[in-house]
Amino acid sequence: MRSVIAIAGLLACVSAWAAPGDPAAGKRKTVTCNGCHGQAGMKSMPSLGGQSSAYFIAAMWAYKDNVRSHATMRDVAGSLSARDFANLAAYYADAPMPTPSEETSAPLLSARCAVCHGTDGWGVVTPDAARLAGQKALYLEQVLRDYRTGTRKHPVMQEQAAALSDQDISELAAYYASRNGLFVK
Questions:
Q1: What is the pTM of this model?
Q2: Domain boundaries of the chain, sorted by first residue
Q3: Is 106 within 8 Å of 175 (Cβ atoms)?
Q4: Which is more confidently placed, 99 or 28?
């Protein structure tokens, strides 16, 4: 009987997490988010507008489970439910497809990034990969350095970032920041 109850509980959690979110309900929850992420001048905070729902939800769970060690984000994520995550993700993901960016020469290393993040940094290949196009350069640089030092955990990203020099990181960040995509919402 316990296993039936456990399975029923697990299925309820999975279906709540997997159910599509309500963008209008998500928008009502953005007051706390907007204090940092809603400010165009906050260059070290990621832009959330246009981010994929799957990545957003995975990131929020990483903060809630203390896999990512940002104290403010851990507290914010800890105060939200799985339904809140889905609603916020639906709100932030609700964005028009960006217009193609002007052709700029991509750093040679961007081909390695494209395996998961797509050739343009927008069309993610794996659902838990972040969209990179349009993200703030200073934020991308910090995240890549955190992966390189192991401060931020993700086995694939840590391995990829370990091979990057500071110049590689700056070039990749500048390239993806120059692409049309994510925005402050």
A1: 0.85
A2: 2-178
A3: yes
A4: 28
